[in-house]
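Dear colleagues,

For the upcoming journal club I promised to circulate an example of a predicted protein-ligand complex. I picked one with glutathione because it came up in last month's discussion. The inputs are reproduced below in full, followed by the predicted structure.
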Amino acid sequence: MKLYTNAASPFARKCRIVAHELKLPLEEIRTLPMQDPDFRRINPLGKIPALILDDGSVLIDSPVICEYLNDAGGGKLFPVSSVWKQDKRRWKILGLQALGDGLADAAVAWMIEGRQQPVNETMRARHMEAVTASLDALARVKFGDEVSIGEIAVACALGYLDFRMPDLDWKSSRPTLADWYAKFCEYPSVKATAPAAP
Ligand SMILES: N[C@@H](CCC(=O)N[C@@H](CS)C(=O)NCC(=O)O)C(=O)O
C-alpha cells in the first residue's frame, strides 16, 4: 500500500499512526498537493492523504483510510458495529474523531488564509473562533488511557496547533487536556510521526 502524505499534514499523520500501531507496511509518497497538479488524478479533491491499495484502487479522506487500515490490520481502533455486538463507545469515538478533524480543518484553513494577499481577516477570525471553541469543547472531554481513532485524531490536531501556531497558548488555560496530550505524545507511533516541514 502506498500513502500520499507529507510530514506536516495532521490528516495524513492519523493514517501513519494507525499503520504504525498495527505494524502495517506503508510506502509513503511525499507530496505538496497545492503544487502538484498531477495529484488530482489520484485524488480529484487534490487533498492528502490518499491511499493506493495493492490492486491500484484509491481511498481518500483520513476517516475512510484509517478505518480501512484498521480492518486490514485487525485493529481495535474503530468501534465495532454489528447486529450482534454494539460498541457503546461508538458515538463518543466517532464524535471525537469528527471534533479532532474539524479542529485540524480550522487550523489548516487559518494558516492558508494567512498566506493570502490580501488576508481576509473576517474569515481568519472565524477559523480561529472554531479553533478556540473546539479546544474548549475538548477540555470538557474526559480522556482516559484509551487509544482509539478519536484520541488519535485529537492528538494529531493538537500536534498541528503546536507546529503551525506556536504562539497559541492553548495549554495553560486547559491543563487537564494538556496533561493528557503530553502522555499521549509518549506513544512510539505518535513520537515517530511528529509534524515537520512538508
Ligand atoms: N477531510 C480530509 C482533509 C484532508 C486535507 O484537508 N488535507 C490538506 C493537507 S493537511 C490538503 O491536502 N490540502 C490541499 C488542498 O486543500 O488543496 C481528510 O480527513 O483526509
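Two points we might discuss: The chain has two domains: 2-72, 90-188. Helices lie at 10-21, 62-72, 90-114, 121-139, 149-164, 175-184, 188-191.

See you all on Thursday,
B. R.
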